[in-house]
Amino acid sequence: MPATYTVHTPESATAVFAALVRLYAVVYAEPPYAEGPDQVAAFAAALPAEPRRPGFALVVAHDAGDLVGAAYGWTMTAGRWWTRADVEPPADLRAADKFAVMEWVVHPVRRGEGIGAELIRRLLDGRPEPWATLASNPSASARAIYQRAGWRQVGGSTMPDGTPTHLLALPLPVAPARRR
User: Fold this and answer.
1) Is residue 77 part of a domain?
2) In the β-sheet with 164-171, what is the strand arrangement from edge to edge?
3) How many CB atoms lie within 10 A of CB 122?
4) 32 part of a folded domain
5) For residue 80, how many other CB atoms are within 10 A of its CB?
6) Which of helix, strand or coil describes residue 68?
7) What is this structure's pTM?
């Protein structure tokens, strides 16, 4: 059965948070992340603040009532960049608003079905920001998927636990609101 997709606003997003935490726990238990209960609890504790960030959006995929994928993010305003970045991003990227993809996850048994591609397409469709950005573990299989989808590395960073990350950016199509 194909997945069904729902785009959530900040007001409706909290209804799926419990399922999102469960999905996060499954996805991030896998290598190379190997996250356990402490990391899942930290994610769950931080999640309620996310919808209050400017430009927040969440897209989820369900199948037979089960959450099988999700992607969310918010606007990283002009002048801001990733904490602990090892290099400055290109000037045009730093100077622009960017849509920061904070999570983009698909249940392991549902990978390879196009769910992740559809989640990100719906999440980024019509965004007013000229760029999207995300941080990726270079050891994760998702890193190669991002590259094939056009995401380009513009720097690196290190997570608080010492895990290295690649900072990626993707130019977004000009949204109708930005056309002149």
Assistant:
1) yes
2) 4-8, 57-63, 66-76, 98-106, 131-136, 164-171, 152-158
3) 17
4) yes
5) 12
6) strand
7) 0.94
